[in-house]
Amino acid sequence: MEYFAPATVGEAVARAETEPGLVRFLAGGTDVLVQLRSGFVEPDLVVDIKRIPGMRAITAENGGWRIGAAVSGAELCRHSGVCADWPGVVEALELIGSTQIQGRATLVGNLCNASPAADSVPAMIAAQAMVAVAGPEGTRDVPVAGIPTGPGQTSLGSGEFITSVFLPARGDGGGDAYLRFIPRTEMDIAVVGCAVSLRVDGETVVDARICLGAVAPTALVVDDAARAIVGTRLDEAALSDLGAACSAACRPIDDKRGTVAFRTRVAGVLGRRAAAIAHDRARARTSE
Amino acid sequence: MALDDAATREFKVVGTRPVRPDGVDKVTGRARFGADAYAPGMLHGAILRSPHAHARILRLDTAAAKAAPGVKAVVTRKDFAEGQTGENWNVLENIMADGKVLYDGHAVAAVAATSVFAARDALKRIVVDYEILPHVTDVDEAMTAGAPVIRGGTADNSVPDSMHPNVVRFHENGHGDVAAGFAEADLVLEESFRTEATHQGYIEPHACLAQLGPDGKGELWCCTQGHFVAAKTCASLLGIDASQLRVTASEIGGGFGGKTTVFIEPVALALSRKANRPVKIVMDRTEVFRATGPTSSASMDVKIGMTRDGRITAGEGSFRLQGGAFPGAPMEFTAMCAFAPYNLDNIRASAWDVMCNRPKQAAYRAPGSPMAAFAVESVIDELCNRLGLDPIEVRLKNASREGTRAAFGPRFQRIGLVETLEAAQAHPHYTAPLGPNQGRGVSCGFWFNHAGETAVSLALAEDGTVSLSVGTPDIGGSRASMCQMAAEALGISYDKVRTTVADTATLGYNDVSHGSRVTYASGLATIRAAEDTIEKLCARAAAQWGIDREAVVWEDGCARPSGPNAGDFEPLSLAKIASRMGRTGGPIVGHYEATPEGAGVSFATHLVDAAVDPETGATKVIRYTVVQDAGKAIHPSYVEGQYQGGAAQGIGWALNEEYVYGEDGRLQNPGFLDYRIPVASDLPMIDTVIVEVPNPGHPYGVRGVGETSICPPLAAIANAVSNAAGVRLRELPMSPPRILAALDAAQTDSG
Question: With an 8 Å Cβ cutoff, is A42 touching chain B?
Fold first, then answer.
């Protein structure tokens, strides 16, 4: 196994592209190193991107935020601008692992690990976040939802890696939230996750995006759930419809972490609860 | 062995909370655990394990592994001694399969190489052809006609011929006439319960460093609760003399019963003998889950009758425990503990030990008792609910007291169950208001406690300090309590004593640190060894003063003339006598060897408040109070720690911990991510109340406290959760999907 720590994006792409064996990109390493030590993967080349300029930066861009691929959870969760605009994304990332893990774990790592249960992915998808992908053909922008294709699988090609996440301008009346269900209170993996991002005009929801995690091979955007609340003041009937739509959309599996029936049911509960939180946040943002 | 004067004695050191002697080593990283041993020329061992739950080994070819780079030895079953009998045969069969693998994770071969990576790579070159056999992992299924036979002919003569060959032992106890008792009752309830296997979950994986020469002389450093037993077992499995194998116990990162036997130690010794080099083996967490002992899973039926005013008229229980692919599930303890807290005229308890294709169970904190309490105390709670009775009043009404005859035979001596119930009743927790979706649970629990073979040696240094050697590894703070008891008995200060866990060449045989026996038995031995030392100190003083030994007494750490008639001499302190001992007769060493009798039984009462989210089935323990009889708390902080630890492990067992098997018989969750022990944020601060009803069998009144604390939690939490959810939970763990399903079922029933 070769460890390579390039100084530029170009170097990283060039080396990764020519590697005939298995390549893993390393940012925080909270997934890659665990998989490596357990013998789950045996990469031939590990490309550590942390030394590339910009990978650790959070910068304002077009009213939104560009977050480097190696920005840790601890750094992001202390960034007042991102926390104010996208509290749902921040709380999703913050749920991952322990304090120690937060010092290393990244949004991009969580995305590229492509676990169906990843916490930050539904939140980023609900936020309509984009990622910048560098590769042999240059750089392209891709919606977050376009990256995971199945458990452990991504759409990234040979020599390609993600250099940053872009969270768009939040604007007035916007609020998001993420909730997950775990049997413990922390240090666990989502049995169900749900992110809601919405916009209000007064109390009325004018726009919404709802995304479920751990109930399908990839995070699931539930348009029916969004439709159930758009145009409402998020009253009980709307919430009930939202919950039913979330449950109806689930395509989960039975496994050691939860049953199909449980996941389906709890997806609806979390959808209702997350929407209520996002709605409160959106209204608070309006009144500012 | 009479209680000296514990009830009235004014203690100076016992009962205080001095700084623990092992604390600095542990927080600075200086403490040496199992994996912290190194030797020149050391090799690293790795073990190949079966991926199948049940299979015949058709071919086992190690030639390519032997030829692999860095490999110095490969061992299989034929490298161990033949002719093992009894439990030694079971242990050998468990640590290295012979012809047939019996569970996912069963060892089939091992390699020693110059690095961990070389050893692991070599394992991949071992060729094993398996013929996969049908398997069974559920205790009830394993007893059913047609279930795969794991090992025919294992059953002992307690088992009726008509039973499936997987049923290997039967036990029953009781007295009175249960049918007549049930006829007297106003309400009789019979319910069925299940508990899943849980692992002890110690943080330190098994680790050892072994050196064994072709001459049969060896040394072993290992993480164990009992190095004397490890020496005895390993010597037998390797075919060497027990006294030629010196075993040293490392610092231990938790055991809870799971480190009372051997797993990797004989394998490391066999590899070392073959390679003629020291061999170290360190298990990873997956191996710990797959191949070391969880506790048994259980399936139980309990029937109890009660009168309208809360008198229990009869209790009957059937307890079926599986202990993996070997005999030994602690089902007799389940049957014996089940009704022990209650003074009943009519009891019948029956128990079956059943083999399944799972790892060999190992002791886990009061083995067999927690599940018994879960079943019995749940039925009592339900009876109280239906009859509108207060759960503590009912327990007080039926509580075992001094003289109560236990179902398993003996009459209890002085015990403290009633005192724990009264303390729980008086505790503010019991009357605190509950919020919506919250419930309260009460449960009692019982454990026998054990004494066992014990030897200690107490040596004086010339500067008046004391070196105490014990043979019981310190798994719960025993070095501190031994220092306290030695200091108390000798009349010196705590910091003048250092307690060391001595190796097997240094002391007489010591039983394992189990059965909550250490503070009781090694403590008793320490006090007696101190008294033996005092005898010798007084003799030296008498000789110096030229008076009779009988004219010298030991008070406040000094030899003194017994009265004016004995003469007028300045008291001689321990330090003063010790400073001259080289010239007055040589080294002064006190010792004591015995198998004491009188490890007083122990009872506890737990109170729990739990909140249940009716929409998700999520449970949170919001308040927890442990009330337990310690006899006498030597170091109260450690006693409280034992109470809290038992409750914490019980919370895990009750709510989320379980061995999950797939259809293929493979363990699905061999890691701490999906085997969910509670994390700190899952637990409330666990409140403790130490009740002290002195044990007449210990000089200072000590009862063991380590195990009883895990007996009530499963039931207390189940009662709290059931009362919060409004539906009785009869299966552990009470995971959120299970709670939601129970709520749904209740709604369907009532709707």
Answer: no
Same domain, B436 and B548: no
Rg of chain A's alpha carbons, rounded to an integer? 19
Reply yes or no on whether the pLDDT at B610 is more than 70: yes
**Distances from the Cα of B724 to the Cα of A77, A99, B195, angstroms:** 36, 33, 20
Q: The pTM is what?
A: 0.96
Which chain A residues contact residue B735 at CB under 8 A?
183
Q: Where are the domains of chain A?
A: 1-47, 174-287
Domain assignment present for residue B353? The answer is no
| CA of B656 vs chain A CAs: smallest distance (Å) | 7
Dihedral-angle region of residue B14 (phi above 0 means left; psi in -120 to 50 means alpha; beta otherwise): beta
One domain, residues B497 and B605 = no
- DSSP for B62-75, please give it: -HHHHTSTTEEEEE
Q: Domain limits at B608?
A: 414-445+600-750
Predicted pLDDT of residue B2: 47
For A68, the token pair is 């480097």
Q: What is the largest CA-CA distance in chain A?
A: 58
Question: Tokens 């399944």 sit at which residue?
Answer: B356
Q: CATH number for the A174-287 domain, one of 3.90.360.10, 3.30.390.50, 3.40.1000.70, 3.40.50.1820?
A: 3.30.390.50
Query: Which residues from chain B sit within 8 angstroms of residue A31, using beta carbons?
Result: none
Residues A28-66 pLDDT 10s:
999 999 999 888 899 999 999 999 999 999 999 999 999
Inform me whether the C-beta atom of residue B668 falls under 8 Å from chain A C-beta atoms: yes
Token pair, residue B316, equals: 């009957």
Q: Please indicate, yes or no, whether residues B461 and B585 belong to a single structural domain of this protein.
A: yes
Distance CA B130, CA B59 (A): 7
Q: Is A266 near chain B, with CB under 8 Å?
A: yes
**Cα of A47 to nearest chain B Cα, Å:** 22
Q: For position B460, which CATH number holds?
A: 3.30.365.10
Q: Establish if A1 touches chain B: CB-CB under 8 angstroms.
A: no
Nearest CA of chain A to the CA of B621: how many Å?
11
Q: Is B507 within a domain?
A: yes
Does the pLDDT at position B751 exceed 80?
no
Q: What is the mean pLDDT of chain B?
A: 97
Question: What's the whole-number mean pLDDT along residues B553-578?
Answer: 95
Could you say which of B676, B678, B737 has the minimum Cβ distance to residue A259?
Answer: B737
Is position B421 within any domain?
Answer: yes
In this complex, the residue of B616, B673, B681 whose CB is nearest that of residue A185 is: B681
d(CA A9, CA A20): 19
Instruction: Tell me if chain A has a CB within 8 Å of the CB of B682.
Output: yes
